[in-house]
């Protein structure tokens, strides 16, 4: 009997040993597999190239769409873009904090001279700054008519009420619906390319009312002294203020108005015609700009006269607050892989990007694409 118990005990111990060995082998196998997967993942992550950009909110919805499409096709390049305004984007770029920046206006002549031969400027897309408003008495199917002169008077605080005779005179069909309500005037609170575009238009269309000193990314808004001015950060911020504030008026990029179903004013152009933004009217302004000789034929050229060429452009079909938006890149990157990734991204924008242009933007003309694509042979790393 003792012998039988001994045999049974030996059998149990053998089973336990075999089970332990089996568990150990599985553990070792899993550890090796997980280690291999971990090593592979690390290697894959190391093979990815990261591009960081920041800047203008004017093209932000489009850039988000483009980046998503680009990364679907180029899974070894990760692009991140933060909409913080043209001014802040330029500041980060020139401090070396980003690889590229988005800016609505090109570099000033002085800034271009400072970085001549080092920075390339690429017009990426055409857009429009629109005038939007929140006046419940005006039906959504009616577009308020407005001029640069009246906008300048509103933003200077000299037109106070919606039923002001100046506004009524441009809108006889709805003059009796314009309320005796104070106009709440919304502008950007941050350094903004959209503001530079808008104030350039005010100066070009009403120079006697809106002086050159009030043109720029950030200005001392006269309307704020009346207590009726409100600042919003970025295009999204201005949009939100207008949406939530009755009897307000503001300026935003076209796409933001479309996305939020906001009313859009018809703006008087240089020919005295009230024009709404559209693909046709935006392209009309761009076509004129290309005839002026103010846009250089190389991305390392001086684009500082570009806004003068396109804003308040002649032509009965031209929308008067049309502008290009840009990205700035360095001509030389210390990292060759980063330089190659930038070139790949640029090539995609100008060969594939026009297939993915969302509502509110218009692809740049072929002439501009040709200028921008020259950068691929200029960027070094």
TrEMBL record:
Belongs to the PstS family. The lineage of its organism: Archaea, Thermoproteota, Thermoprotei, Desulfurococcales, Desulfurococcaceae. CDD domains: PBP2_PstS. It holds the Pfam family PBP_like_2. PANTHER family: PHOSPHATE-BINDING PROTEIN PSTS (PTHR42996:SF1). The keyword Chloroplast does not apply. The keyword Transferase does not apply. InterPro entries: ABC_phos-bd_PstS, PBP_domain, Phosphate-bind_PstS. One of its GO terms (cellular component) is ATP-binding cassette (ABC) transporter complex. NCBIfam families: 3a0107s03. Keywords: Membrane, Phosphate transport, Transmembrane, Transmembrane helix, Transport. It comes from the Archaea. The chain crosses the membrane at residues 7-27. GO terms for biological process: phosphate ion transmembrane transport. This is Phosphate-binding protein. GO terms for molecular function: phosphate ion binding.
């Amino acid at each position: 009997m003792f012998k039988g118990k001994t045999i049974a005990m030996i059998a149990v111990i053998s089973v336990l040993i075999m089970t332990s060995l089996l568990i150990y082998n599985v553990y070792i196998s899993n550890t090796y597999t997980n280690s291999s997967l971990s090593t592979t993942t690390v290697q894959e992550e190391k093979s990815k190239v990261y591009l960081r950009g920041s800047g203008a909110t004017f093209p932000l919805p489009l850039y988000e769409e483009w980046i998503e499409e680009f990364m679907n096709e180029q899974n070894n390049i990760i692009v991140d873009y933060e909409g913080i305004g043209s001014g802040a984007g330029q500041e980060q770029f020139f401090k070396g904090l980003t690889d590229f920046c988005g800016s609505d206006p090109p570099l000033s002549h002085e800034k271009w001279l400072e970085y001549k031969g080092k920075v390339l400027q690429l017009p990426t897309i055409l857009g429009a700054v629109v005038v939007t408003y929140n006046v419940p008495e005006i039906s959504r199917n009616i577009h308020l008519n407005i001029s640069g002169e009246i906008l300048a008077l509103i933003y200077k605080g000299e037109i106070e009420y919606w039923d002001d005779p100046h506004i009524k005179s441009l809108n006889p069909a709805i003059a009796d619906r314009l309320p005796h309500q104070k106009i709440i005037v919304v502008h950007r609170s941050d350094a903004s390319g959209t503001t530079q575009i808008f104030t350039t238009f005010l100066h070009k269309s009403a120079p006697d009312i809106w002086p050159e000193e009030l043109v720029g990314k950030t200005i001392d808004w006269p309307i704020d002294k009346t207590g009726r001015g409100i600042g919003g950060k970025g295009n999204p911020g201005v949009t939100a203020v207008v949406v939530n504030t009755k009897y307000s008026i503001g300026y935003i990029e076209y796409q933001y108005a479309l996305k939020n179903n906001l009313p859009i004013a018809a703006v008087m152009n240089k020919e005295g015609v009230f024009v709404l933004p559209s693909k046709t009217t935006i392209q009309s302004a761009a076509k004129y700009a290309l005839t002026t000789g103010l846009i250089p034929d190389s991305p390392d050229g001086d684009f500082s006269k570009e806004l003068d060429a396109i804003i308040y452009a002649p032509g009965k079909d031209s929308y008067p607050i049309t502008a290009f938006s840009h990205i700035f890149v360095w001509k030389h990157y210390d990292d060759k892989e980063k330089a190659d990734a930038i070139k790949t991204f640029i090539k995609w924008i100008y060969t594939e990007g026009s297939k993915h242009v969302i509502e509110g933007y218009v692809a740049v003309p072929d002439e501009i694409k040709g200028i921008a694509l020259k950068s691929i042979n200029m960027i070094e790393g």
